[in-house]
From TrEMBL:
<protein>
    <submittedName>
        <fullName>Uncharacterized protein DUF2281</fullName>
    </submittedName>
</protein>
<dbReference type="Pfam" id="PF10047">
    <property type="entry name" value="DUF2281"/>
</dbReference>
<feature type="domain" description="DUF2281">
    <location>
        <begin position="37"/>
        <end position="68"/>
    </location>
</feature>
<dbReference type="InterPro" id="IPR018739">
    <property type="entry name" value="DUF2281"/>
</dbReference>
């Protein structure tokens, strides 16, 4: 059975945030998540202007749902 417990690695030591469910000496495996820093692009307002069109009857009831109304 595997149990995941978060911890903080600092100055060569791992401090666990939770309490492990074991009471005796146990082998553990520590993995470090790979952080991929992707730079966020600043979005430009109005970038899709002219590319999206909504029909004039967008808010009208659908014919398929007439029997439910």
């Amino acid at each position: 059975m595997e149990t995941i417990i978060k911890g903080i690695y600092e100055n060569g030591k791992v401090t666990l945030i939770g309490t492990p469910p074991v009471h005796s000496r146990t082998e553990v495996t520590v993995t470090f998540p790979e952080k991929v820093a992707s730079p966020l692009k600043k979005r430009q307002a109005g970038a899709l202007r002219g590319r999206i069109h909504m029909s004039d009857d967008f808010n009208e009831p659908l014919d398929d749902l007439k029997e439910y109304m």
